[in-house]
Every structure is written in C-alpha cells, then in structure tokens.
Amino acid sequence: MAWVALGVSQLVAGIGRPQGSPVAAVGSAAIDNTPPAVKNFAISAFGSHDKTALIIGILVVLAVFSAAIGIAAMRNLRNGYIGLAIFAVIGLAAALTRPNAALVDVLPTLIGALVGAYALRLLVRAAGGQARRGAVPPGTGQVAAPRTARTRGATPPPDFTVPTDPALAGSPDPAPPTAGQAAEQPRPVSRARSGPPTTDDQRPAPWQPGRRSFLTAGVVALAAGGVGTLGGRTLSERSSVSTALANIRFPKAAHPVPPLPSGVDLGIKGLSSFMTPNSSFYRVDTALLVPQVAPQSWQLRIHGMVEREITINFHELLKRPLIEDYITLCCVSNPVAGPYIGNAKWLGASLASLLREARPRAGAEQLLCTSVDGFTSGTPLATVLDGRDALLAVAMNGAPLPVAHGFPARMVTPGLYGYVSATKWVTDIKVTTFRGELAYWAQRGWSQQGPIKTESRIDVPGGPVSAGRTQVAGVAWAQHKGIDAVHVRVDHGPWQQARLAAVPGIDTWRQWVWDWDAARGTHLIEARATDATGYTQTPVQQPPEPNGASGYPSVSVSVS
Q1: Residue ranges covered by each domain of the chain
Q2: Other Cβ atoms within 10 Å of 313 Cβ, number
Q3: CATH 2.60.40.650, applies to 455-559
Q4: CA Rg, the chain, in Å?
Q5: Tens of pLDDT along 67-108?
Q6: Beta carbons within 10 angstroms of residue 322's beta carbon
Q7: Crossing angle of helices 2-15/50-75, nearest 10°?
C-alpha cells in the first residue's frame, strides 16, 4: 500500500514539480530542522552519502508505519484509512512549508494517498480481512438456521437446516400436528447436497480468499510502485537540462588563466592531485533532490539596498566578459584533515561587476543569496568587492557545471567557506545587512562570516611502511592568503620544514612533501601550515561549528 502510494506520488511529482514529492519534502524538512551537532555526526558517519542514508531512514520508517496500517486495516478498514490519512497530512505539511512551496505541491501527496487507499482496500480483501463472520463457503448448498426459531411449535433441534430445494422454498407453513400424529411425524431431513449436518458447535469457518489471490495482488502492487518510482525519477531528470548540458558552448574567456606552472603536482602516489576531477569533487548541500534548472528558464535578480535593480538571464550572463581562475573550495563542515575540499578551474562572470552596476547603497554589508530550492547563504559584500575573483560560475574544469554542482550558475568566492560564499543554483541576491537578514546556517547558530582557516592535511603515508627513507606528503590551504611554509614532526620532536610545490596563485591549495628516515616502530606524524600573512596553524582542536575546525592533522604510522 505505502509502496504504491509512494510510487504514484513520485510519478505525479516527476510530471509536475519534483520538490512536491512527499519523500523529498519530508526529507528536506528533516534536514532543515536537524541541529548542527546531528548534522556533523551524519557527515562524519556517512560522508557524502548522508542524504542517501536519510532517504533510506525515511523509507524504513515508512515501511514500519505501512505495516502498522496494514495490521490495523485487517481488523477494521477504517483504521487503515485513518493511518493513511496521518501519513498524507505529514507529507502535505512538509510540502507546503518548503521555502518555495506552491499549491500544486500538494497534488503528489493527495493523489498518492487516494491511490494508496484504493490499493489498501484491494489488498485487505485479497488477504481476507474483515470477512463476514458466519459466511458460508460458496457451493455448499445450505444455509445455517437462525439461532431463534420463528416457526410455530417447539424450537427446532440444533441440526435443523432450512431446505434450499426450490420446490419447498415457497411452501406455506404446514398445520400443526395433532397429539396422535405427533409421534408419527418424521424428523426434518436436511437437504444439503453434501457433508454432515451443521450444528452451532460445527459452524462453517469464514471464507478466506486463496493465497494465490493475495500474492497476485501483492506482486501487482509492488510492480505499480516500482514503475511509478522509476518513472518519477526519470521525469525529474529534465530532458531539457540534459540536452542543454550536452549542447552548451561557452565563449572564450575574456580573462583566461595562464597555463599551470611546472611542478604544481608532485606526482606522489596517494597524494591528492592539484586538480580535483568533477566526478570526485566533494558535494555538501541541503538539497535532497538535485534541482533541475533549464538554462533557458534561469534568471538572477539583484535587489534590496541598491540604486538599480538588475535581472539577468543565462544568455545575457554568457555575453558578459568571462573570467577563468583556479580556486579551491572548502566546506565549513570539513573536520581537521577532512575530505570536503577540492580545487578546480572555474569559468564565470564577475559578480563584483554586476553588483557595481546595481550600485549598493551606503550601509549595505551582506549579500543574501538564494538558491532555486530556497537555501540561503550570506556573503560579505566587502569581500566580493575587494578585487578577488568572486564569480558567477558557469563552467568547471573546462566543462559545463555538473547539475549536482549548481548548473546552470553558482557562486564561487575565494577565501570563504562554502556556506557563506558558494550558493549553487543561485537565482536571487538581496543586498542587505547582517542584522537585517539571517541566512540558513546563521539561523542555526553558525557564524555569519566564514573566512577559511589556515589548515593542512597529511595524505601520505596512508598505511604501514618499511624502515628507511619514505615520503610524508599532503596539501595545505589558506585561500586568498597563500601558503608560505609547511612543517612536519614525528613523535612530538622538532619541526622539520617540508618542500612546497608550485602554485598558480594564492587562491588554491598547495602540495608539500618531506623525506623521512623512518625507524621501526609506531610513530605519530603531525603537520602545520604557515600562510603568507605569517599566521601559523593552531594546535587547538576545535569542531567545525560555528566557524570551521582547527588543530594539527596527525597520522599514526607503523614502520617494519
């Protein structure tokens, strides 16, 4: 029943608005109301699969709830309908409270619930639920006598049955026998076609449908739910978006990035490459369903504390001078030495140029940036306008933005954690103040401004090594400041300076390596980075919230 309802709702959502799916709506509501500590646990436990884990959890709860509804419906179908209605109300409430909710978002849940109710009724009937007590199996040819005799004379004996012979069905009641005839009257004979006489103690069992009919109904329900779910998912992946990704062509950059200098990649096995492929670039966001935005329908509005409101579409965005730059992005949820960081070559239009055309008013200090799915981030206006390459990016590593990374356009701002600088699927920028507006994560206790901390990570060695000369290597980052040095120490001994790879600028991470004469035993290796301002990475261990993790990265290495 629940599987059928879910499949139908997914199909309807795919035809209309995917965000109307009850699973997506409930899951998004769960993400929005998750405390930061729980969010950090989910990311640390499940990594980039945290949304998959959430969906699986929702489906497990749904399965348990569905089983309870089925058990209740077998006893009383009305109870099953009440349980299904509760499920529908939850889905409707979640859909209607999304930031970009529309009335049409109620249709997937409503239609799914109605079809689910019909499927519940069919399944209960197929399973024999609520069978009429005392019903006679078809084909027995007899009907049990009523408990209270309404004929004249003595109460019929317990084994008396009403004849079903058509010739006797309409006969009038016979005259009562005289006293002398009473002994000669034969006992009424049952005219049942087969079987022994039926008594109150041998009443026929209620008729139950065959196992085959229930299995058939169950298989049909499973198939219907599966077809609906797959169909809805296919429809959600808009063909217009897929076609646009395959056919889009970008003009040449007005400001192309110079070729990478030699030596940016040390070529050490196990060391993170200088360029992170699109397929392995980290993804952390609140979108349970990846928004499918066709470029022909995309537009960006800049408004608020500005002298001139601006609205620009995708075609107009591509006609602006495009800038290329290598920029490393990092998530604020990244733990010390964590994986939520990557480096790419981005192509996009200057966000600062657009904002200057809008002419921000005095006192403006924040860009409240809104995604097509309702997520908001607050970007410091001064940071965007200070000369760094803050972009409305349209391409990544020489290819159109992947849908999961913000196609058709996203923000990329060097030097700030992603939650305040890198809104994907951006469609609205409101120029405002930090006091006047709180963005999504600021409402949940995170800092309103998120400059990236100077950090480092040890990638190599990743396991046991042999005694002798071995390499310790990793990456360090301090976006828009630059890395000047990395030091390594073993077992809390003296710090040793590592060798740095080349970099194209101050907005990317930097590889480093140190040659270690490893002795047998188990050793603790730590690293620290120093940026171009002279600040050295702190050893103080802090969790990600509210403004990013800190502390030395360390690995324990067994040497044999």
Answers
A1: 2-131+210-236, 278-444, 455-559
A2: 14
A3: yes
A4: 36
A5: 888 788 888 888 888 888 887 888 888 888 777 777 788 888
A6: 23
A7: 130
